Amino acid sequence: MTAVPVATKPVGVGWDPRRYFGGFWRHPFARAVLKAVLTVWVTTTLTFFLIRLMPGNPVELKIDELIQTANGALTYDDAKAIASGLFAIDLNAPLHEQYLSFIGSLLRLDLGRSFLSSGTTVTSIILAVLPWTLFSVGTGLLLSFVAGIFLGLLAAYRRNSLLDRIASTGGSLVSSIPNYNLALLIILFAGVQWHLINFTSMRGAYTSGLEPGFTPAFIADIFYHAALPITIYFLTPLGHWILSMRSATLSALEEDYVTAARARGLSDGRIRTAYVGRNAVLPLVTQLAISVGFIVGGAAVIEQLFAYQGVGKRLLDSVTQRDYPVIQGVVLLTTISVVVANLAADLLYSKLDPRIGRAGGAAG
Amino acid sequence: APTTGGPTGGGGGGAKGGEFHGGWPYVLAPQGHWNFFATNAILGGGIYTDLFIPSLAVYRWVDAKWDFWLAQSAQQNGDTYEVKLRSGIKWDDGTPFTSKDVATTYWVGRLASYGIWNFIDKITTPDDQTVQFHYSKPTSLGERLILRNGIKPDKIFGALGKKAQDFYTGGGTNSSDAGKALVAEMNAFRPDKPYSVGPYKVDPASVTAAQLTMVRNTGGLFADKVNYDKVVVYQGETAEITPLVLNGDVDYATHGFPLATDKAFQDKGYKIVRGPIFTGPALYFHWENAPEFQDKRLRQAVAMAFNRDEAGKIFYGSSARAPQYMVGFADSLVKNWTTDQSKFNSYAFDAAKADQLMKDAGYAKGSDGIYAKGGKALAYELYFPSDFQDWAAAATYTADALTKFGIKVTARGAIRSTQLPDTNAGKFTIAMNPWGTGNPHPQPSLVRPFREFSKDAPGGGMKYPLTQTYSGGSINFDTVLDDAITGFDTAKQKDPIQKIAQAFNELLPCIPIYERLNNNPINDKARTAGWPGLDDKIYQQGGGDNFAIVMIMDGTLHKI
Amino acid sequence: MSTAILARPTLGQRVAGPMVATFEFLRLLATRPIGLAGFVGIVFFIFLAFVAPLFVPLRNDPSLVDIYQAPSAAHPLGTDFQGRDVLNQIVYGGRDILTVAILAALVSTFIAISIGSVAATVGGRLDTAILAITDVTLTLPKLILLIAVAAILRPTSFVFLAVILGLLQWSSLLRQVRSQVLSLKERDYVEAARSLDLGLFHIVFREILPTMRSYIVIHFILAMTEAMYAQVFIIFLGLVPVSGSNWGIMLYFAQGQGALFYKDSIWYILSPILAVSLVQLSLVSFAGALEDIFNPRLRGA
Amino acid sequence: MCLVGESGCGKTTTGRLLAGLIRPTSGRLLYEGKDVWQTKGADLARFRRAVQLVHQDPYASLNPTRTVFQTLSAPLYRHKKARGGRQALAAVSELLERVDLTPPDNFVSKYPHQLSGGQRQRVSIARALTVDPKVIVADEAVSMVDVSIRISLLNLLLALGREFGVTIVLITHDLAVARYFARHGRIGVMYLGRVVELAETESLVSDPAHPYSAALIAAIPEADPEITRGKKRVELRSAEIPSLLDLPPGCTFHPRCPLSEAGLCDVKIPELLAIPGHREVACHVAVRERTAEPAAATA
Amino acid sequence: MPVLSVRGLSIDYLTRRGAVHAVRDVSFELEKSETLAIIGESGSGKTTLAVGLIRLSPRGTRVATGEILYTKDGMTSDIRKLDDDDLREYRWAECAMVFQAALNSFNPVITIWEQFLDTARAHGIKDKHRVRERSAELLDLVHLDARRVLPAFPHELSGGMKQRVLIALALMLEPQMLILDEPTTALDILTQRSIIDLLRQLRQRLGFSMIFISHDLSIAAELADRMITMYAGRVVERARVEDMFYRPRHPYSLGLLRAVPRVSGALGSVASIPGSPPDLIRLPKGCSYAPRCPYAIDACREAEPPLLKVDTPEHEAACIRWQHVAEVIGSKAPLPVAEKLA
Ligand SMILES: Nc1ncnc2c1ncn2[C@@H]1O[C@H](COP(=O)(O)OP(=O)(O)OP(=O)(O)O)[C@@H](O)[C@H]1O
Ligand SMILES: Nc1ncnc2c1ncn2[C@@H]1O[C@H](COP(=O)(O)OP(=O)(O)OP(=O)(O)O)[C@@H](O)[C@H]1O
Ligand SMILES: [Mg+2]
Ligand SMILES: [Mg+2]
Predict the structure, then answer these.
(1) A23 confidence band (pLDDT: 50, 70, 90)
(2) With 60 as the cut, is the pLDDT of residue A128 above it?
(3) Would you say D170 and D186 are in contact if contact means Cβ atoms under 8 Å apart?
(4) What pLDDT score was predicted for residue A86?
(5) DSSP annotation of C85
(6) Percent of chain D topping pLDDT 90
(7) Which of B304, C190, D202, E252 is 20 to 30 A from E9, comparing alpha carbons?
(8) Ligand 1: which of D6, D9, D189, D194 to mutate, most ligand atoms within 8 Å of CB?
(9) From the CB of D13, is ligand 1 less than 6 Å away?
C-alpha cells in the first residue's frame, strides 16, 4: 500500500564499501548475509542491555511466587534462600563482563539455562515451541499470500467489478482490524455466542495422548489445533496482499511489455502468469519476508488467546516471570528466523528477478 | 496441637471408574520437568501433586487435626517428632515405600531450603517404617513443615540425598560455595519420567499444552480407595480455563474467577464453593515517601474512608469480604489465637468518622480535596499489580473512592514482575501488596507487613519502623514475631500474638482491604458426584489442603 | 496591472490556494465513498475523543448493583464489571489512545523525514551509516522487541510510550523518504534552485518537502495506525503500567474480568474492540483514498 | 556555441560541470580567469548565478507545487532584486514578457501542469534570467518540445543572447538544430565524454575533420527525401558503443573508426589540437593529414 | 488490392472530463510492400491509430466508427469483427508491431529466448528446434549474435540491440504488415541510422508492408513511399512522399516542413508554427487547425473541411485554401527543393 518508492541511484554515492570488501561485498547475497548477522547482533545486544537496565531482579519475584504458592509453608528467609539457589548467574558482575561471557557462550551456540528451570537449556525450551509458531505462522501466511495474490490479480483484471469491490474493500476491512481484536471476535462470536466452533477442544498444538509422527491422523490433528491461529494469520495480512497485488497488477498491466505481448498474440493465460503476475508478485516477495517478522510478533497475543504453545506465548510467560535467558533467547531466535526469512526472500527475489542478481544493488 | 486421628471421611461409597477433570496452569516441558524439588516441575506446587507424591498427612482445618496419608501416625517425643509410615505401599515401579524415601526427601529438601531445617538438625530412620526429626529450635510451626511435603522417591533422588546428608552432617551450609554448587546440581537434576507413590500417576505421553492425564497407580497409597480411573488436568490460567468450565469439560477448578465468570457459572447451574484463602490485598504506605501516613489517624481514616467490602465484591462478588478484625491475619484464625477480641476495631466504612479523624489530625477538607495545614493537597499514586485482575479491580475502585473522599489517589498498575521489585525498592507512595497467608498459624501472616514488605525487602520496602508505641506500650514487632512461634505449646504463643494483633489493629501498618474466598466451580452434572452440600465443613479447608483432593483420596468423590 | 492581480499569487497561495485545494480535495474524496467514510470516521473519533469529554460528564462511580447491564436507554452500551457506563468510558477512553498514536506517528515521521532527508542530502559515510542502521532496524521483529522493551522500560507516561513506539517504527518510512529525497534532489527544478543559489533551507522546505507533502501525510496516517495497533497490543497484554482509562485498558480489563464469556457483557467487551477497529478502519480507508487522490497514476477512469 | 554528440556521451555532464553543479574529477573550470572550484562561498555562489542551466525535460524542470510567480519571484527576493509583492510582480511580468509569455497576467498564477511544454520551457528560461546570468547552458532545451515550436524557442534564446549579451551554450544531439542555432558560432562534437572536434559551424558541417563528426553528419537523416536518400554513408567498423566504465585504450573511437591505424590510435590518446581553418580536432590521422608539420603539432 | 484499408475510423478515450477524440474519421490504404509514414505533432493521435489497428487500445477506449479491412490471399476481413482466436492469429502473424517504447517491450524477468518461444507457441509452432533455428536466422538478419542474445535478459542488451531484437521478433512469423511506432526516437544517431538502413534492406528482401509512425520528418523522408499528416486526430493530408515534401497542400504540413532545419544544403528560412494544438475533448468549430493557420479565412471556422483531391489523384488535403497554399509555395516561400532546383 505504500507508494512506489523511486529507485535510488546506487552509483557513486559517497563511501564505497567495495573498496573494503572487494568482490565479496559486491555479491548481493553476501551483503544480505552480512546485514542479517548485523541485525541479529544488534537485537541481541539491545535486549541484553535493556534487560540489565530493569530494576529489581528475578530473585525477588521468585521469592514472592514461592511465598504465594507455599501457603505459609515458607518463611520469607526460606523463600529467599531457595530463590537465591535457583539463580546461577551473577547479576552483580560488571556489565561488559557479563556481555562478553554472554556473547562468548552464544558463539558456542549456548543460550544458557532458564532462570526458573535451571536444568533446562534455553535452546531446548525454544526448540520445543518455535516449530509450532513457524508452522502456524508459515501456513497462515503462505495461504494468505497465495489467496491474496490470486484475488488481487483477479480484482485487477476485473477492475471496478463487484468482485473487485468485495475483495479490495473486504480485504482492507479485515486487515485494518487488529489481529487480537479479530481473535477476540472469533472467540466471542464463533465460540461463545454462536457455538460454531468448539474452541476448547482446539487448545494446544495436538490432542493429548496422540502419538506424534508423520501419520495422516497426527497431521490432520495439528492442523485442527492450529486452525484458529492460522485463520488469524490468514485473515490479517490478506487485505494487504489483495490490495498490493491489485495495484501491482494494475501497474504491470500498463507496462509496455504487456501490450507488446498482447500484440504478439500470446494467450491470455500466458500473459496473466508469466508477464503480469510474475512481475506484479516480485515486489510482494520482499514484503512477504518483512511480514514474517510482524506476524511472529503478533503471534504472542494470538497464541495467548488461543492457548497455542508457540514462541510468542513462551515469550509473554517469560516476560511475566522475568526469565531473562529465555526472553533473550526467544528474541534472538525469532530475530534469526525473521532474518532467515528475509534472506530467503532476498535469495528468491534475485532468482525471480534477473535484474537483481547480476546488477546488484537493489537487494535489501 | 493435636497430632492424632486416622483418615476420616467417606471411604469409597461410590462406584469405581470414570474420570475427574480439573485445571491447573502447569509449565510444559522442557521448561517443565519432573524434579519436584526445583521450581517449574510439571504441576509442581499445585494441588494435584498430592495424587502422585502425597505428603505424610493433610490437615483438616475445621477440626484442627491431621488426616494421615503416607504416615500411619505421628508423635512428638520431647524434641523429637516421630512419624510411623504406612506399610505395603509401593512406588509405581514396584519399589516399596520406606522411611528412606522420607529421609531422602528431607535431605534433598534441605538443598531446596525446606523450612523445617530452620528448626531441626537431623533426621534419623531407625527402621523402614519410622522417621525421626530432631528439633534444635522447637517450634509449633514444625509439624506442618514436616507433614505437608510431597514425598519423593529415594530410588531417584537417593544419590543426591546421600550427598546432601554427608555435606550437611560434615558441617556444610547452603551459603558456602560447595553448598551453592550442590544446590545448583539439585536444581539442574532432571528425572527422565514422572514417579508416583499416590493413587495416580501422570502419563508422560499425555502431556500437551492443553491437558495431561493421570492414570491409576495400582500399588500406591489409597489405590483401592479412590474411585476414578483417570484424572485429567487441563492446563491454563483463568482466561484459558474459563471456557473449558463453561463448556462442561472441567469438573472442578481452583482459579480465581471474576464476577462475570462467576455469574456465568451460576447460570450454568454449577455449584460455587467459597472457601477461605486467608489472604487478600492490602494498602501499604511508604513511611518516607508518604510521611503524612506516619500519623496513625490518617491510616485509620483511610481504612474507614472507603467501602473495603465493596472493593472486594467488585471482582469476586460474595467471594470476598472485608475482615472483621483488622489484625493482620484471617478472621477465622482470630478466635483460636487471640485472647481478647473485644478491642479489635473493624474499621467499617464510615466516611463521617474518617472525616473527623482527618480533622483531628489537622487536615481541612475543601471542595476539591483534603489539605494539610500548609495548604498542600493530599495526592498519591496507588501502585498495583495489573496482571492480578482481582486486585486491579480493587485498586481502581479504591483509588476512585479515596479520591471521592478527598485524598487524590491515582491508580497506576504494572505487571507484578515490575510492580513488586519497585515496591520492594520503595518506589511508591501507596502500594497494593498481599496480607495474610494460608497457614493455620497466624505468625506467617504477620511476617508479611513487618518483614517481607519492610525490613527484609531489598531496598527496604515500605520502611515501616518495627518499634512502635500503641495502647499496650512499646512493641518491637520483630522480636514478638519470634516469640509467637517458639516452643511446641501453642497456648503460650497466644500472648505474643494477642499483642501483635492489638498493635496491628491500632496502628494499621497496612490496611487489609478484603479477605478473599475462593470461588471454585463444581460441575456435578457431567462426570462427578459425591460432593457434599455447600455448607459442609470440608469446604473450609485452606492453605493448599485442597478439599477436592482430600475427597478424591478418601473416595468421597466418584463418577455419576 | 491591478493590485488585485498582485494579491492573487501571494495572498492567493496562502488563502485561496488552500481553500481551493481543500474544496478540490473534498470533491475528489466525495467520489470515493470508502475514503469519505474513513474521513468522516476520523473526524467523528477525534471529536469523540477530544471534544465530547468537554460536554459529557465523567461517570466512573462504581455501582455494584448495576454491573454487566445490557444496553439500555440509561447505558446505551451497557455497564462494565464495576457497574460503570461503558459509553462514558468509550468517550473518555479515546483521548490517550489517539494522543499516543499521533505523538508516536509524529516522532517516527519526524525521525524519518529529518534523518532521511539529511542522509539523502548530505550523502557520503553518514548516509551509508544511516542506511545500514535503517536496514538493520527494518528486519528487527518489532513486536517481539516491543514486548521486551515495554516490559523492561515500563513506559509510565504516555509521552514515553509514544516515543518508544515512534522509535520502533521509523525505519521503513526513513528509507522511503531517503530514496524520495535522493530522487527529488536530482530533479531538474532542485538543480535549478541550487544554481540560482536559493539556499539549502529553500531547497529542502520549499522545493523538496512540499512535493512530498501528500506522501508524508499518508505515511503519517499509516504510522498512526501502526502506533495504535502496537499501543493497544501492549496495553492489552498488560505490559504497560496502566493508569486511568482508555480503550486498551478497557479491553484489558474486559478480557481479564471474563466479559468474553458472560452473556450480558458482550457490549462491554465489544465496545473497545469496535472503537479501536473502527478508528483503524477509518484511518486505513482514508489513507487509501488519499493515495488514490494524490497519485494520479492510480486515479484512473 | 553548440555542443553535439550521441546520447550518453557526456553532454549533460559537461553542462552541469559548466554550471558548477558538480565538481570535476580533474582539470579546472575557469571563470573570469579564476578556477571556480578554488573559490569559496560568495564567489562560488556568484559564479553559480552567472551560469544558468535550462533543462531538457519541460515536465521535470519546474516544481509542480509552485506557481509561475513563486518560481520566478523566489530568486528575485533571495538576491534582493525585488522587495515586496508589487515589485516582484512587476519584475516577474517583465520577465514573462521577455520570454513571450504574454499577457503575463495569464501566467503568473498558473501551476506547471496548466502550461504546455513550450510554455514551461519559456518559464525555465525566464527563471534563468532572474539572476542576470552571463552564460546560459541550454541542455537539450528544445528536444522534448514539439517540432512545430522548437524554432521559436531557439529564436528566443538567440534573441536573448543578442539583447542581453548572454552567452548561450546549447547542448543537443540534433546536428540540424545545432547548425541552425550556432550558424554564426561554433559547434563542439563530443564522443564518449570528450570533445573530439570544435569548429565553426559551416565548416564543420560541410567539411568535418574528425571521422566521428563525418560519420555523424553522414548518418543524419534529412527532412528531404532526395537529399537524404542520396547521402553518402560513412561505414563504421562496429555499431557497438563502448561502455563508459570500460573505455577502449587510445582513441576511444578507434574500434569503430574507419581511419583507425593499429599501433597508433589504439595506443595513444589524441589531444584536441588546433589545425588550420579555425578548428580543433582530436584525431591522430586528421591532424596528420590536415597539418603541414604533424610532428610539430604533436610536440 | 490494398493489404489494409481503413475507412472512417474514429477512436475516443473516455475520461472523466469527457471523450477525448483522439482519432477522427481516418481513412487510408496500405498497398503491398509499400511504406506509409504517419507524421504529426505529439498528441495528434498517431499511436492511438496504430494501436487501434491491431485492436490493442487500452481500457476506456471506444472505437466509435469505421472499419479496418485486411486482405490476405484475396480474402478480406474486418479486424473489428474478428473473434478472439482470429484476432490473436492476426496479431503478429499478419501484422506485427514495434512499439513507441520499444525499449520496454520485453518482459524484464524472462530471457529473450523464452519470449521468442512464447511468440512462436502462441501461433502454434511447437517445435523448439525450429523456433531456435528461426530465431537464430532472424537475429542474424538484424546483425546480432543469437548465441549471445537469446540467453540474455532484456536488461543485458543495449537500446539499439533491443530495438533490433524486436524487429527480428516482429519478422518471426513473416507478417504481411509491420507497424513501427517511432522506432528510433530514443536511440542515438548512429544507431538510428543502422536501424533505418536495416529496415530498408529487410523490406527489400522480405517485401512486407510497413506503417511508420514518427514526428520526425526526416526519417519519413528516408523510408516512406507515401505519407499521411495527422493533426488533432484527423488526417489532414495524404500524398506521395515527394508531393508531401515538395508540394504540400495543407498549411499544417507546410508548417511542419518549415519548422525543421537542415544539416546539409542551405539553411533556408525556418519558422515555428505559433500556438498549440486544440483540446481534443472540446474541439473548436470548423477546421481544427484554423486557430494556428496563417491562411485561415472565416469559412475555415465554419465547417470541418473534408479531404479534397488536389493536384494528383493520389494527393488529398483537408483544406479549402489548398490552392492558396500552392500559390504561397510557388511564390514566396522557398522550399528546399525550390532552392535545389534553382
Ligand atoms: N549521477 C551519475 N552517476 C553515474 N553515472 C552517470 C551519472 N549521470 C550520468 N552518468 C553517466 O555519464 C554518462 C554521460 O551522461 P550525460 O547525461 O552527460 O550524457 P548526455 O550526453 O547528456 O546524454 P543524453 O543525450 O541522453 O542526455 C552516461 O553514460 C551516464 O550514464
Ligand atoms: N489512455 C488515454 N486516455 C485518455 N487520453 C489519451 C490516452 N492515451 C492518449 N490520450 C490522448 O489522446 C491523444 C492522442 O494520443 P497519441 O498517443 O495517439 O498521440 P501520438 O500522436 O502518438 O503522440 P506522440 O507523438 O507524443 O507519441 C493525446 O491528446 C493524448 O493525450
Ligand atoms: Mg543529457
Ligand atoms: Mg505516440
Answers:
(1) low
(2) yes
(3) no
(4) 65
(5) B
(6) 0
(7) E252
(8) D9
(9) yes
Q: SS3 of E12, please?
A: strand
Which residue has its alpha carbon closest to ligand 1 atom 2?
A11
Let me know if E298 is exposed, middle or buried by CB neighbors in 10 A (0-12, 13-18, 19+): exposed
Query: Of E98, E101, E75, E99, which Cα lies nearest the Cα of E86?
Result: E75
CATH annotation of A131-363: 1.10.3720.10
| Cα separation, E295 vs E272, whole angstroms | 15
Percent of chain C scoring above 90 in pLDDT: 9
Task: Give me the residue spans of the domains in chain A.
Answer: 41-93, 131-363
Q: Cα(C114)–Cα(C106) distance, rounded to whole angstroms?
A: 11
Contact status, residue B246 vs residue B256, Cβ threshold 8 Å? no
| Residue D5 and residue D11 in contact, taking contact as beta carbons nearer than 8 Å | yes
For chain D, which domains are there? 1-184 (3.40.50.300), 202-299 (no CATH)
Cα separation of B417 and B428, whole Å?
15
The rounded distance, in Å, linking the Cα atoms of E56 and E66 is: 16
With a CB cutoff of 8 Å and minimum separation 6, the contacts of B312 are B280, B320, B321, B322, B394, B513, B514, B515, B516
Residue B473, beta-bridge partner list: B470
| E253's grid cell | 504540413
D186 close to E (CB below 8 A): no
* Res. B269: pLDDT tops 60: yes
Kindly calculate the radius of gyration of chain C based on its CA atoms and give it in whole angstroms: 23
**What does the alpha-carbon distance between residue B545 and residue B68 come to, in Å, rounded to a whole number?**
12
Q: Smallest Cα–Cα separation from E153: which of E102, E120, E110, E105? A: E110
Cell output for A354: 534477473
Ordered structural domains, chain C, with CATH: 85-284 (1.10.3720.10)
- Cα-to-chain-centroid distance, residue E300: 28
Beta-carbon contacts of residue B289 (< 8 Å; ≥ 6 apart): B426, B428, B429
Q: Tell me how far the alpha carbon of residue B552 is from its chain's centroid.
A: 21
Average pLDDT over residues E263-278: 78
Whether the CB-CB separation of A137 and C143 falls below 8 Å is answered with: no
* pLDDT exceeds cutoff 50 at A8: no
Cell numbers representing residue B113 in the block: 531450603
| Non-local CB neighbours of B530 within 8 Å, separated by 6+ positions | B10, B13, B14, B227, B551, B556, B557, B558
Q: How far apart are CA D254 and CA D266, in angstroms?
A: 6
Higher pLDDT, A357 or D233: D233
Distance from CA of B247 to the nearest CA of C (A): 11
Answer whether residue B526 shows pLDDT above 90.
Answer: no
Q: How far, CA to CA in Å, does E16 sit from each of B388, C297, E19?
A: 61, 14, 8
Q: What is the CA radius of gyration of chain B?
A: 25
pLDDT, tens digit, for every residue of A99-120?
Answer: 888 888 888 878 788 877 777 8
- The model's pLDDT over B450-470, given as tens digits with 9 standing for 90+, comes to 988 888 887 888 999 999 998
d(Cα E216, Cα E100) in Å, to the nearest integer? 13
Ligand 1: which of D6, D11, D189 to mutate, judged by most atoms within 8 Å of the beta carbon? D11
Average pLDDT (C289-296) is 72
* Verdict on whether the full-model pTM lies above 0.80: yes
3-state secondary structure of E4: strand
pLDDT for position D292:
60
pLDDT given for residue A359 in this prediction: 41
What is chain E's mean pLDDT, rounded? 84
* Pocket of ligand 1 contains residue D55 by CB under 6 Å: no
Q: Which atom of ligand 1 is nearest to the CA of D5?
A: 21
* DSSP assignments along A204-247, one per residue: SSS-TTPPPSS-HHHHHHHHHHHHHHHHHHHHHHHHHHHHHHHH
Give mean pLDDT, residues B45-71.
90
In degrees to the nearest 10, what's the CA dihedral of B201, B203, B207, B211? -60
